Amino acid sequence: MSGVRSPSADGKASPAEARGMERLLRVVVPVLMLAGLVGLWQWYVTAFAVPHYILPSPVRVAGALVTDWQVLGPALLVTLKITFSALFLALVGGLALAILLVQSRWIEIALGPYLVILQVTPIVAIAPLILIYAPTTQTALLICAFIVAFFPVLSNTVQGLKSTDHNLIDLYRLYGASRMQTLWLLRLPAALPYFLAGLKIAGGLSLIAAVVAEFAAGSAGAGSGLAFRILESQFRLNIPRLFAALLLLSAAGVAIYAATSLLAHLLLHKWHESAIRREK
Amino acid sequence: MNATAISAAHEAPGRPLVSLRGVTKTFSTGTTALAGVDLDIAPGEFISLLGPSGCGKSTVLRMLAGLADPSTGTIDWPQARVDGAGRPDLDMSFVFQEATLMPWGTVARNVWLPLRLKGLSMKAARPRIDEALEMVGLGGFADAYPRELSGGMKMRVSIARALVTRPVVMLMDEPFAALDEITRQKLNDDLLRLWETFGWTVVFVTHSVFEAVYLSQRVMVMAARPGRIIDGIDVDRAEETPESWRTSETYVRLCQRASASLVSAIAGTDHL
User: Fold this and answer.
1) Which residues cross the membrane (chain A) (predicted)?
2) Does residue B184 share a domain with residue B138?
3) Does B90 touch chain A (CB under 8 A)?
């Protein structure tokens, strides 16, 4: 913080100071927490002389991350590629299907049950089938991740498209708006907060699904992702590398979550209730 | 009382702008919202539909707007051409009880909407948008978002959006019901000023006796279950200024008369 102003006479900080302090603490507290936990981990491993093939120390994990980067880096890239392709397809597919579903009650009645079946059947159980039918393993993984990720986008967007203010729909009718105008200028903007909520869920799910599908596929070789590297490390008792791969997955998940949250904030902060901070 | 006789006695002189004959509305649930409404509205008239909730006053408004169809009976627009859907080629605007603004658009973009739907670009529409905002006293708020405005200001935006098309008919469905008394009073006066400026035909739905008598030239009192018109009250405002009108003897007497009608309307039903 800049400006070393003394607190006012009653000992309370001014609102600006309080806000700056809160912003600082928002960074400092999580960092201290992390440092504490890692420190505890390091201390435990050293103090009790835990063998590194049971629980490697944080230092060793960091070391593995550097030395094994030639293996882990490409694997991360493969996993991320599947994740983002699946997420992209889920967004496009979920949005398109949502728009189709709200056009007619009968379309929804006809397709609804299959969408639910697709959603509730565990992806691990369908994966072997998809592996048989898909031309390549990569395609199979992509299909699996897509199926998991697209449902939250679909159901949230349908909900949003249906929640459009009825008075506004009447107003559009009164002014003779076309179907396209109503969709484009009214229903889609009204559904945007719901769509973005779906995106936040789908972002995390597509990473999870990409990993789970790879476990199920058990694909190996040059084109394999982080999930295979984790299995491989386990077989070889290369636990530091396993931890390093896990670390990369978590980091990727956090980054995806942060990116989707940022996107939602940027698109909504001017007008939507969810993005507005209230003074207490 | 015979509803037809009453409304016939209050028929507007000359050719009406719109004329309802034997209009009924029965919803798919079986509820009869309206049972035989006859009503003529003259061009340039300020008419209020006053009644308890469930009397079908909003249904009449929605039918005039072409947002609902009568189950039986006719709605004629003798002075306008009517398209296939029964909608007259008159510019109509609707103001709802809530401001009904799009929260993602600024004030200017909300007011732009009716013109935008007609294909006018923001640039072409801008002078009219600014004029409309000026008319409702929101000149400096074009770039504000609805959430930054008070309830009364949101309603002003809603009215600006309604008047930006320079409509012939202004349909208002309890527009000020959710506002506080002071704001409501102010908006009532502003509405009268705008009505005098633009010469709209206003159909104003309300459940406030004072508001109805204060604003209108004619108050139609409606009863519920089934919805129907039970009384029509002509209001002669003469040359009163807003302030003197609100405290004049005529105003008080007409309010009493409308209240009595409303009480009899409510007494006719078992519950509210």
Assistant:
1) 24-44, 82-102, 114-134, 140-161, 182-201, 207-231, 243-268
2) no
3) no
Q: Does A185 touch chain B (CB under 8 A)?
A: yes
- CB of B240 within 8 Å of a chain A CB? The answer is no
ipTM of the complex in this document: 0.86
The distance of B208 to chain A (nearest Cα, Å) reads 22
- Which residue stretches of chain A have pLDDT < 50? 1-9
Residues B122 and B158 in one domain: yes
CA dihedral A89, A93, A94, A100 (to 10 degrees): 170
Which of B67, B98, B146 lies closest to A174 in CB terms?
B67
CB contact under 8 A, A192 and B104: yes
Mean pLDDT of B218-231: 88
Residue B110, domain extent: 99-167
All residues at 6 or more sequence positions from B51 whose CB lies less than 8 Å from its CB, including other chains: B57, B207, B221, B222, B223, B224, B227, B262, B265
| pLDDT (mean) for B221-240 | 84
Beta sheet of B32-41, edge-to-edge order: B32-41, B18-26, B72-76
DSSP string of A220-275, one letter each residue: -STT--HHHHHHHHHHTT-HHHHHHHHHHHHHHHHHHHHHHHHHHHHHHTTT-GGG
pLDDT given at position B95: 94
**How many CB atoms sit inside 10 A of residue B25's CB?**
23
Superfamily of domain A58-275: MetI-like (1.10.3720.10)
